[in-house]
What we know:
Helices cover about 40% and strands about 15% of the residues. It is an alpha/beta fold.
Amino acid sequence: MKTASRKKLSMNAICFFLSCLISTALAQSTTAVHQQRAGTMVITDVMVVDGIGIPAEGPKDIIIEGKRIKQVRRANPDGDYRKTADALIDGKDKYALPGFINMHGHLMDSRAGETMPFQYQYNLWLGAGMTTIRDVGSDAEKALVQQRLSREEKIAAPRMFLYMWCGGGDTEEEIRQNVRELKAKGADGLKCHQMDLFTFRIVSDEAKKLGLKIAHHVGIKDANAWHDAEFGTSTIEHWYGVPDAALDGIQQFPADFNHANELHRFRYAGRLWREANPEKLEKVLQSLVDAGVAWDPTFCIYEASRDLQRAVTQPWFKDYLHPALEKFFTPNPKYHGSFFWGWTNTDEVYWKENYQIWMRSVKSFAEKGGVVTTGEDAGFIYQMFGFGYLRELELHEEAGFHPLEVIKHATYNGAKTMGMDHELGRIKATYLADIVVVNGNPLANLHILFPKGINPAMDKQRGNAGGIEWTIKGGIPYHAPTLFEATKSIVTSARQHSE
């Protein structure tokens, strides 16, 4: 009995001791925790891409205190700052990039008349490395609420800059009053969309007086890129207005063309660049550069026009496509951008050529000193939030830009264009701690920014590397795989309710 009691006592002691060790280890664990900001966090042994186009350097340690980067220094395994840190992220064999800036987003809580929660797109944006969104047109009242909640850190979402729809008016006073009202409402800038020259001139003048930047989707109007250069537009969205300004006369529309018919509109948009006079085009580009107008091309949003088969079979649709978006994407004249009910191979041939000239023009614009940014315009034309943005980066490389330049477009250039380059767009001491930690080297292969598990062939090709591991916004670490799993759950639930 005594021997048995001693054995029992001994086993109890061992279990208690092991329990204490485990508890102590857990208590002392410094691994970063999803969605919890630490007092001090260190990303260790990581290769750093600054964001301004210079080569990666490392391994380095990035020391974060609260919301900001305190120091970027040579990695030191014995550094006291590692021992005293509240949280660590192991950056070995990983790359750190500045948080991505999406310069063309739209906040959406419904599509095709069906509810779609904001958190759905927030998860996808954060999971794809975006820490900042420039919203260029949505429900202003809802957007202001979401912006405030993000600032107060009450929701898991990127920070938001709101460039509100500017509707103009009939008289000069009405137009100016509309701009003043948007400023008073809290607009960070204005979004002008297919605005005639009379209205655009007045809007630009009033916006300049109030310190509001303008994002301009030019469209087919009497205003074009020459006027963007003249009036001081901040960014040209997409490409409308650029080749238009280089035409000899007007585009050769057929007699039955109807701009209100989106099949017509997008079909002949694909035949515009070929009609631009190359010599005039270079002068237009130079005028934009000289005036400091940036270009946000959003290559990804029109890619279905040159390859519809690719667009409708994107592998991430399987787990991440919300049924409201799926319904909106289905060809239907009621839904903007869902114009593929009569799309032909001939249309795709023209659009392939359109892309070649468009991409060469963006590259020429940059070579002249122009600032190029990145945006996705997702929620339209088969482009999903987050995935569309990562595809945009790949298309910038297709346009001839080095991956380091692509990252600069996605980070520093966006910050510079919004006047935020003093604290966003770089991995640098005193800047906000907006950082993307990637499992592998995206400079060698931009494909690895996409999450694992969506494309077996891609996973096999990139081996153990791949996927954004952490997106850090203002010092708050978001674990990307956790965000994508949460998104799957949102989609699964929505699909069950829509059946």
